[in-house]
Each structure stands twice: as structure tokens, then as C-alpha cells.
Specification:
alpha+beta, Phenylalanyl-tRNA Synthetase, Chain B, domain 1, OB fold (Dihydrolipoamide Acetyltransferase, E2P), Phenylalanyl-tRNA Synthetase, Chain B, domain 3, six-stranded antiparallel β-sheet, 19 helices, 25% helix
Amino acid sequence: MLVTYNWLKDFVDFDDSPQGLCDRLTMVGLEVDSLEAIGADLDTVIVAKLEDVATHPDADRLTVCQVNNGQETVQVVCGATNHKTGDLVALAQPGSVLPGEFKIKKSKIRGQVSAGMLCSEKELGLSHESAGIMILPAGLTLGQPVFEALALKDYKIEIGLTPNRPDCLSVVGVAREVAAIYGKPLRLPSSDLKAICAEPITEQASISIEDAGGCPRYAARMIKDVVIAPSPDWLVRRLEAVGMRSINNVVDVTNYVMMELGHPLHAFDFRYLEEGRIVVKKAQEGDLFTTLDGQDRTLSGEDLMICDGRRPVALAGVMGGLNSEVQDDTSTILLEAAYFKPTSIRRTAKRHGLHTESSHRFERGADIDMIPIVLDRAAALIAELGQGEILSGIIDNYSQPLPTPVLDISVTKTCQLLDVVVDRETIAQLLGSIGLRVEVGADADDLRVTVPSFRPDIEREIDLIEEVARLYGYHRIPVTMPKGIVDAKQPPKRQQIKDLLTRFMVGAGFAEAINYSFVSADSINRLGLAADDDRLRLIPLRNPLSEDQAVMRTSLVPSLLETVARNLNYKSTDLRLFELRPVFLDLLNLPEDGCAEKLSLTAVLTGRREPEGWSQSQANIDFYDVKGIVEELLTGLSIDQVSFDPTAAQPYLHPGKSCGLMVRDGLSLGVMGELHPQVLGRFDIDQPVYLIELDVEGLIACCEDSRKFVPLSRYPNVIRDSALLVAESVSAAQVLDIARSIKQKTIEDVTLFDVYTGKGIPEGKKSMAIRVRYRDLEKTLTEEEVNRSHDKLIRTICQQLGAEIR
């Protein structure tokens, strides 16, 4: 919100510097973003008189002016055409720096000396456009700074308002806060209607509201015999100071009153309103409407429209229509002010991509009681500046009056929450200073507060206490440290495992990725899942932001592959990414509108095994890198007896280079391996990518048992190696599972260290060599004890697998 220092002083008499005012505003919650002086550095631009204006001898479009600056007459070359001898002008002397860092120097223009520049309003920052140089009013003192002579020195204050303070979206609203800060009375602008004719407005126009929920109140006044003309300088400069462009006297008045009092208005050219009627109703779905900016808008059935007897003429609360705008030959004005439901205006503005000063105020909550005041204020100004007459009476259709909130505030509760001692009279004075009506409550400790319509943000007692806090002064509230009791209990097991998984993945060189939980409907289809896969039953959003975020994701794999593809496009080819997030499954046994939320850990690896460097290996990641990471992770969770089943992989993984992770009772913990080339092609990935996809819920279920401490043995170990001849179909897991299943407390570890086929090995057979480490916690093992244990181990493997000792 932009206001000016002098404009505020029109409504409140206070004695403080602009900087002091900004500091005080910030302390009451109206944070000032910037303070800009208007005309502060332009004292070298002075009032001067044109003693003579002659055509430039070498340029038809230039004039050579003899300019009296009050001390001497200097020559200035000018390119404008709107000046003549005897005019008072704004002379920028050599050394002046105009807005935009434009420095004036003495120079020669087409052979003629020019000692300065005659300035336009645009060059002095007083307007966005200008047709020529600035012609000053007669009677000003020569040599006086222009901004001082015209009383244009001011300060522009930009306030960063929060959305809950629509009352301060006006100069009067900010002035109300200033009056409360300095304890001064607030003067409201005059709205006396003088030029009123006997003709009643009700004989010319009518208003009907078909959607009272969207528009509880709509009012109008009419001004006839208006002359459309440029606005006077004071009005143009006021609007320019708050960032608005002057259009004509009628439109400028509606903008001026909106900035002054905070309530938007709209002026219709009455001759274009069919049947002289205004009808407020919803639009017809699919209709086209051309707004004031010349754009055709396709209307929704939810858009609230202002219509005449036959057609829409304005997009309610957002923008008027091109078919009823005020033009140069307009003579009769229908001036409207209304209140619209904030949520309706917000949706309409967002739907059409429009954000206007009007919609900005309506969607935050306008003041419904301000409507007759702004109508009278604007009608009086239009009649004055446009030389028109106001028809008698006002049409005010107020079909659904809004309730006036009445709240109680407890003095004791206020003191307790703010940790200050403040009496009831002080609270009443503070709340009354911002326009709230305060009365004695039913209890001696209470006050009853009637909340005016310009404060829609005050809904509860705590809102009133907040008002007391900011008006009393945040700096006067003591600073105390919060007190609390630290709960030393460990976090839940689920949270512990999540933290452990995150730390492990980061420690393994992975970077955590965070993707949206909403994806496009076809993203999961690119994985090529089986038709009966639960992940194909998608859960659509009722109100998606876009088609790319229309469903809840049932797998983290598509999002991570899209992240990989994006990184590869940026030439980042060595990636280790993981995501630990929930997926949402629409399971058949859930009630309607229900879904199962399951935590998943998904990781992708691609590129080199080691970072690029002169001493690092250039080898790429392979299946066994992935397997090693998974084994380390399972070890960290104390999950053992996990088998790697190549038949339990997913269709989006490469057959022969992937497997499933299985534990007791056939429970699957997930899958790992290389992604199928066809799947990578669907994601535009042209290099191998390896995947780890783990069911975190399964990991939690498998590590329910607490860890047991096993002391280190003080006694030496004994190693035995054996080579076994087995069938080619026998897997290493089978051998190791049998070895680990033998109940011998002296077996500490069994490792497969060699697999051999070739010369000396019969066809259909292979050699597998295992290394067994024996150790006892209580004594040193003897040779005989080790041999006896090892013979039993080898006999068991041979019996169960049909193996032979090489």
C-alpha cells in the first residue's frame, strides 16, 4: 500500500518526521518497506520565465529560449512546442540530476549554447507521460525551487500489509492508525452533495440482485451533464504519487476515492446500459466477455457479473467491461459501489488471471458500511470536476445485512497473555482509538466490544488482545524465555528407523531428493506394471493444480527417474539419489475414499563408481555395488537371513540383473537391480541406472527384536577351507544357508570365496570353495574339536545338495 506523508496529514494533525512516522507504523504492525522523498534532491530545478522564444536557426523543430532565472537571463535550447514568451517554466540548471540519474550539463545543440533544460512533468517524476514542458501557474517567484513553489515536496511511504488488514488499504485506514499512535482525532474527508437536481434517480435506473450470497449490497448514484476532461493537477499528482495513471476526471475520481477511503467504485456510461437496469447475477457458462483491457474472457458459471437489461457490463469486483466504459463524449454517469463475497472475487480473479486494485480489496474483505459514504464522496467530486448535476436520491439494495460482531475481552486474561499490567480503562482507550466501540461488560473484569465492518479480521477475543498488544507497544512487553520440560524418552521405533535409514544413505554417498507427492496419471504406466498390480489403482485429486499433479503417487520410482533424466540433461551423469517418502495405495479392502499410506525407501545409482579424479577408477556402478549397499543397510538394522531371489523382481527391472529381497515366511522387503532398458527409454535416459526399492514397513516389522550384545572372544580363531563339487544349478545362497543353519556355537562365520568351472571340472558341475572360521568364547579350540565340527558341516552340505569334496 502506497501513501504519502502530506496526504496522511490531511486527516491527522501530528508532529513527527517522516522517518519517525515510519518507525511508529512499523511498531504497530504496519511494516514500512520503503520511504522515498519526492523532490528532495531537485532544489536546483527552479521557477524561470521565458523572456523570448525564437526558432532555432539550424533546426525547425527546436526553439532557442531566453530564460530569466531571477538573477540573470540564460539561453536554453528546447524541443517542445507548447511554450511561448511570458510563460513560467521549470528550469533544470547545469549540475542538476533528474530522476533516472540524468545529469544536466551546459552544452551546444546545433551550434547554439544551452545552459540548462526546460523540464516536463515526466522528466521531474511527476507523471508517467507528458505532452510538452511543464507550464507553471502565474505569480510564482523567479528562482524559487519548483517543488517548493508548488508545494510538491512530499514523502512516499510503502507499507507491506499482511492480507488480514484490508482496513489499511486506504489513506484513511492508515490515518486511523496514525491517529491512534499519536492520540490525535481523525478527520474524515467531506462528502457534502451540493449540485443536486430535483430529478430522482429511481425514475432513470433500477438495481436487482439475483445472487444475494455473492453480492449482499449494491448501491448507485447518477450524475448527468458531466463534461469529460483532464483532471486538475492536484488530482493527477496525488494519483501519480501512489502509482496510478491519470485517465480523465471521472475515472480519476473513482481511483482517488478508492485510494482515499479504501472501497472500489465503478463508473458506467449510462447510455450504454440497456433498459437503465443493473442486474447482479451469475454468468452463463462459456459466454464471452470483453474487459476494459480489451481481452476476451470465457466466463464460468461461477463468475459473478454486473449486467444491464440484456448483457454483462462488468466482471463483478474485478474489472469493468469495454462495452460501458466512460468515453470522451459521455454525459451521464451511473456510479456504483458494492460489496462482494471475498471468496467469490478471489476465485474469479484467479480463474481469469486478473489482479486489479479493486479485486485486491474485495478479495480481502471490503467495508460494507462504507458504500454510501464513498458514493457521496465520489459523486460530489465528479459533479465538481465535471460540472455535472447529481440526481436526487440513492439506490441502495441491501438485501442481506451482515451481522455486527460483538465480543467480550477479559482484562485478567489480557494481562496474563501479554505478561503486562494494564487496567480496564487503558484497554478501552486503546481499542477505542482505532474505531472500535467499547462498553462495560457484564462482569467488572470484562469489556464488550462492537467490531466495525472495516475490521473483518477481528473475530475472537484473542484478536482483540492482539490489538491491545500492538497499540500498547510490543517494545513495552517484557522479553521472557519460554519454559518447558524436556522429555528424555527415546523417539518411537518407527522414527528411529527412519533416522537410521536417512543417515545410512547419506553416509553411503547418496543425496536426498524431495519430489511432489502428486504426479501425472500416466507416470506409473511408464513402468510397465502387470495389469493386476495395486499400484495401477490411482487415487485422483478432486481439485488438482495441473494435469501433471492429478493423482497421488503409488511408487517413488517414476519421480526419481524423472529427476535422473533432468540431471542427465544438465550433464550431471554420476548420480546417487534417494527418497524416503510415503506412497498411497488404493487397496480393495479399504472403505470408500480411503487409501493405505506406506513408507518407501527408493534409491537410484548411475555413472561412475568413484568421483572423477586422476587416481580414481573409471569403472561404472554395477549390480554388486547395489547388493553391497543393501547388505550393509540390512546389517545396520540387524536383519539377517535375507535371501536374494532372482524370480521375485519387478517387470521394470532387467531380467538376470535384478532380484527380490525375501525374509522369513516369504515376506518381501523390496527389489534391487538394473532398470529395464525399455523403461529407461520411456524416461529418455540413455545410460544404465540401478535401483533399490525397499518397503520400510517390512523393515520395521523385521527388526522388532532388540539387539543383543555379544562379547569379543579372547581366544584365537581357526580357519578351515573346503572346495565342493556341486551341480551348476546350486546357488551360493543354498550352500551358505545350510552352513549357517547348523547349530554349532563354535562356527563364527562362513564365507564363499571361490567359484570355478572349466578344466578338471566335469560338465554340468562347478567348484565352490567356502571358508569357515571357528572360535569359542570360553577356551582355545583344539585341532580335534575343529576337525570334528568341520567334518559335520561338510557332510551335511554334501548330503543335502549331493555335493562331493574335491
